[in-house]
Specification:
The complex is a heterodimer. By secondary structure, chain A is mainly alpha-helical. In chain A, 79% of the residues lie in helices and 0% in strands. Chain A has four helices and no strands. The termini of chain A are far apart. By secondary structure, chain B is of the alpha/beta class. Chain B has one domain: Alpha-Beta Complex (Spore Coat Polysaccharide Biosynthesis Protein SpsA, Chain A). Chain B has eight helices and seven strands; from the N terminus they run βαβαβαβαβαβααβα. The model of chain B has no long low-confidence stretch (mean pLDDT 89). Classes of the chains: A mainly alpha, B alpha/beta. The interface between A and B is medium-sized, with 17 and 25 residues.
């Protein structure tokens, strides 16, 4: 086993364990961990079975196997970024709704002290 | 409308308007019998207290939502409290309070679902900056081509809407330049809209939040949101 393989295995295994640990400690929600777990597991498999990478690359019509790895890596990052944009949009919507509810409830709680419409200035 | 007089709410979104909001609320309440609701969009200054002292009902948003979110909160209040008509007017003195009856009238007679005050109809004193006029023209073209409405002032924030639109906007209201987007929503709802001439002035206090770069950004964003709204489903 050459050095670069050993490094790849250690790095991807470490990464996988880190993600699992974050989920276990509830610092990362399960739904957001799925893509990361999937990504790090794929890298681990490809570091252990490097000939699979060659097969996959050739199947995709790519002559130089590492460039297949880059392609997959970039696509994965894109996917995860889109996932985040969607998550942020959802949070944005929820945040707006909550702010609006709070404003309406605060006014109600104060019993309409502000500006009694029946009293003219 | 039916026997009882219609209940009318004036919604004023306000962000950092402590200098103009008090006078505006007072002149609204002196001249008209409407309830005045100020939606304080997370201001750090005394906007909220000033409005309350002047006799307005005040909603304090815990953070700044932007104009669309603030105005929508006003619609939600109106819906919850059963108002028949909502008039929306700016908090910075740009809109002429005396013109409110003009935007109310077609709704009260049942001739329109939405009445939009236009600064370009009739004799106008309005002199906007060149980018602003360009933006307005651009949106005018966009609205007129896609909806079939004949609109002269698509970015006017001085308008009145009836119950039906209040209920709909409480659920769906756009965020930036909501007025342009709202035309697509009204078009989709087959709402009857009318424009009436109103007076608008340059801002008395504070400065408009629009810089050149942001103007372009908003133009792209609003156009996108507008076009998406053409093909979106509203459940």
């Amino acid at each position: 086993m050459n050095r670069v393989t050993l490094f790849a295995i250690c790095a991807s295994a470490g990464f996988l364990l880190y993600i699992l640990e974050m989920v276990r400690r509830r610092k990362l929600r399960e739904e957001y961990s799925i893509l990361w777990l999937f990504g790090s597991a794929s890298i681990l498999v490809l570091s252990l079975k490097q000939d699979w990478l060659v097969v996959l690359a050739h199947a995709a019509g790519i002559v130089y196997p590492p460039s297949f790895l880059f392609l997959v890596g970039i696509l994965f990052i894109l996917l995860i970024l889109i996932h985040f944009s969607i998550a942020i949009s959802k949070l944005h919507q929820m945040n707006k709704k909550m702010a609006q509810e709070i404003a309406l409830m605060k006014e109600k709680a104060m019993g309409g002290v502000s500006g009694d419409p029946s009293i003219k200035p | 409308m039916e026997g009882t007089p219609p209940r009318i709410l004036v919604v004023v979104p306000a962000y950092q308007e402590e200098r103009s909001i008090g006078g505006l609320v007072r002149s609204l309440r002196e001249r008209h019998l409407f309830d005045v609701l100020v939606v304080n969009d997370g201001s750090m200054d005394r906007t909220s207290d000033t409005a309350r002292e002047a006799g307005a009902i005040v909603l304090d948003l815990p953070c700044n939502l932007g104009i669309g979110g603030a105005v929508q909160t006003g619609f939600q209040y109106a819906r919850a409290h059963g108002y028949d008509v909502v008039v929306r007017i700016d908090g910075d003195g740009q809109h002429e309070v005396e013109d409110i009856p003009k935007v109310l009238d077609p709704i009260l007679t049942g001739n329109a679902d939405a009445v939009i005050g236009s600064r370009f109809l009739g004799e106008t004193e309005y002199r906007g900056s060149i980018p602003r006029i360009f933006g307005i023209r651009f949106f005018r073209l966009l609205v007129n081509l896609t909806t079939g409405y004949r609109v002269s002032d698509p970015t006017s924030g001085f308008f009145a809407i009836n119950r039906r639109l209040v209920a709909f906007y409480s659920e769906h209201y756009p965020s930036d330049y909501p007025e342009v987007d709202a035309y697509i929503l009204m078009h989709r709802l087959k709402a009857r809209t009318v424009e009436v001439p109103v007076r608008m002035y340059e801002r008395a206090e504070g400065k408009s939040s629009i810089t050149a770069f942001r103007a372009v950004y908003y133009m792209v964003k609003v156009t996108l949101s507008f076009l998406i709204n053409c093909i979106r489903r509203f459940g």
